């Protein structure tokens, strides 16, 4: 039997993950009292049980203390019951935004502010986070990205990669991404905007890519950038970092930044390192939208 405990920060996506697991054949339960966890595994492990995949959702709403669930896991360890802990996390500002959008209060905030409840919950869940087999930061994950990760881990049994890298192109005139960990300015490269036939195109078009990449400085910059990122990644993993946003910016976020971001993404994807990677182009269409107004 494969037994998965889904826990983590309230608002990080536990309900969505349980639905995804249910869709792929897991028997899912949510908010089961902690005291029943050992008994449940005992029943499901009986020879006549037809259930071979179970997912149990537990968070602060389950009215457990982190220590209570920790004791339940200790009991499972003593009985040699195999289990996996999936811990869902997200940045505080993302959790606050989600609570505001749903107009719900945090289970630990009471009559106080949401950020106070989040801080208290994060403190209480440190022991569980440290015991997790998988830590998924959902801050920048779309539903399709989250589903792909869940399928990879719990259906295809692929090796899980705790660090998820987002390579993000942007335009400085629209502001630096607030969640960027590393920001690189490529406005020193030749600008295709001043080439009439290239102006309406973007960094996903071969003509723009060829124009930017033919410059000697571009190759030098990419080599140095890739080398530095390759050095940083294992150190971030060792530190326990789960999300890394690498932002590449030019003036409008349409030509140079998109080209360089695509090149860096390709280099990281081909390296098959101990991380997942995706690419986003935040401002690639904004120039066209602005002109249409």
TrEMBL record:
Query: What keywords does the record list, in alphabetical order?
Result: ATP-binding, GTP-binding, Nucleotide-binding
Residues forming the RapZ-like N-terminal domain are 1-156
Does the record's keyword annotation contain Ligase? no
Which residues does the annotation say bind GTP?
59-62
Q: Which residues form the RapZ C-terminal domain?
A: 164-285
| InterPro entries in the record | P-loop_NTPase (IPR027417), RapZ-like (IPR005337), RapZ-like_N (IPR053930), RapZ_C (IPR053931)
Give the highest taxon in the source lineage: Bacteria
Summarize where ATP binds, as residue positions. 8-15
Please indicate if the UniProt record lists Ribonucleoprotein as a keyword: no
The family database entries (HAMAP family) matched by this protein are listed as: RapZ_like
Protein name from the UniProt record: RNase adapter RapZ
Gene source species: Dorea ammoniilytica
Gene name in the database record? rapZ
